[in-house]
Write a structure and sequence with these properties.
single chain, about 375 residues, alpha/beta, Aspartate Aminotransferase, domain 2, two-stranded antiparallel ribbon, 12 helices, 11 strands, about 40% helix, globular
């Protein structure tokens, strides 16, 4: 049985007519840069995220970058974040010339351990970037308390978490900025690169709009130096067409996660399961932990099961950040997660038969590796 990590073709076939119409409307209008389709998408994402403003940008990576630029964060400044994340989080900090300062993760949620934040704040600290990894939000009350005590800006990296909730509040709505990615593999993806910054601050929103168009307002008049960070109108139209389906897709991901939980417990497989500690985990990824991770991944690949490692090398051990002088052992929980975590297929189109096959395959592997564990048939 073939079980892909993601099945975008199946998703597209289900909503093809809506997406095709949205694209055709942009082509008919020949209005490709900003304009009404981008504005429509911005209003919809702002409303969905319970935010006053949304600013469409070129990618989730640029959403982080432009948020830092809006706060004039640069050389001599420090920004606290997690070392266990996609590169863009720490990369944006480095790109503006600031220093990434890492705190280790909570091994249960994989999000930054907020209890460690106070010890990392210095006179140079300007901002905190919590990452809502895998679709579950970080401990935002603690993050915001530290930020308020020290006058810090909070930029939520919600690239994997649009629609997630923490104590009734949507991802992106709690910090000063919320950053989304519409990369195709995300739970709400476009057909290329795209992103969005949300905020409840009108002045910040206006500065972001200026920065994304080379810092010009009006056109050709530049008070600040920005960049070309505009969201493409075709991508915005695709996101708008998909957004009405997002809650149904999230519900399907949550059902699939519950099914995995039940099947893996039934099979008595010695793997660690995800733990839900917030109001609404949207399961952009379903991540298990296993000591023989690389061997299991190779075995599943042979059987046609797609998996992914998010992420094999923590940021502090990346070659480009060697100048920080943070060697192995600096953040043990992040390093352990990088060696043990594996994402299973969780997309909305996953069938019950496919999920059972994945679990049976894991059970068979574990029975071979750990003879005391009996591989159960779930047929």
């Amino acid at each position: 049985m073939n079980v892909p990590l993601l099945d975008l073709k199946a998703q597209y076939s289900a909503i093809k007519a809506e997406v095709d119409v949205a694209i055709a409307e942009v082509l008919e209008s020949q209005h490709f840069i900003l304009g009404p389709k981008v504005e429509q998408c911005e209003k919809a994402i702002a409303a969905y995220s319970n935010c006053a403003h949304a600013i469409g940008v070129s990618s989730g990576s640029d959403a982080l970058l432009i948020s830092l630029m809006a706060e004039n964060i640069g050389p001599g400044d420090e920004v606290i974040t997690t070392p266990y994340t996609f590169f863009a989080t720490a990369g944006a900090i480095a790109r503006v010339g600031a220093k990434p300062v890492f705190v280790d993760i909570d091994p249960v949620t994989y999000n930054l351990d907020a209890s460690q934040l106070p010890s990392k704040v210095t006179a140079k600290t300007r901002a905190i970037i919590p990452v809502h990894l895998y679709g579950q939000m970080a401990e935002m009350d603690a993050v915001m308390t530290v930020a308020a005590e020290h006058g810090l800006v909070v930029i939520e990296d919600a690239a994997q978490a649009i629609g997630a909730e923490y104590k009734g509040r949507r991802a992106g709505s709690i910090g000063h900025y919320g950053c989304f990615s519409f990369f195709p593999s995300k739970n709400l993806g476009c057909a290329g690169d795209g992103g969005m910054v949300v905020t409840n601050d009108a002045q910040r929103a206006e500065k972001l709009r200026c920065l994304r168009a080379h810092g010009s307002k009006p056109k050709y008049y530049h008070k600040i130096v920005g960049g070309n960070f505009r969201l493409d109108a075709i991508q915005a139209a695709i996101v708008s067409a998909k957004l009405p389906h997002l809650d149904d897709w999230t519900a399907a991901r949550q059902r699939n996660a519950k099914q995995y939980d039940e099947l893996l417990r039934e099979a008595a497989s010695p793997v660690g399961l995800p733990t839900v500690v917030t109001d609404r985990h949207i399961f952009n990824q379903y991540v298990i932990r296993v000591s023989d991770r690389d061997e299991l991944q190779a075995d599943l690949k042979k059987k046609g099961v797609g998996t992914e490692v998010y992420y094999p090398v923590p940021m502090h051990l990346q070659e480009c950040f060697s100048y920080l002088g943070l060697g192995e052992g600096s953040f043990p929980e992040s390093e352990r997660a990088a060696k043990e975590t594996l994402a299973l297929p969780i997309h909305p189109e996953l069938t019950e038969a496919q999920a059972r096959f994945v679990v049976e395959s894991i059970g068979e592997f574990c029975a071979r590796k750990h003879p005391s564990v009996e591989a159960l048939s779930l047929a």
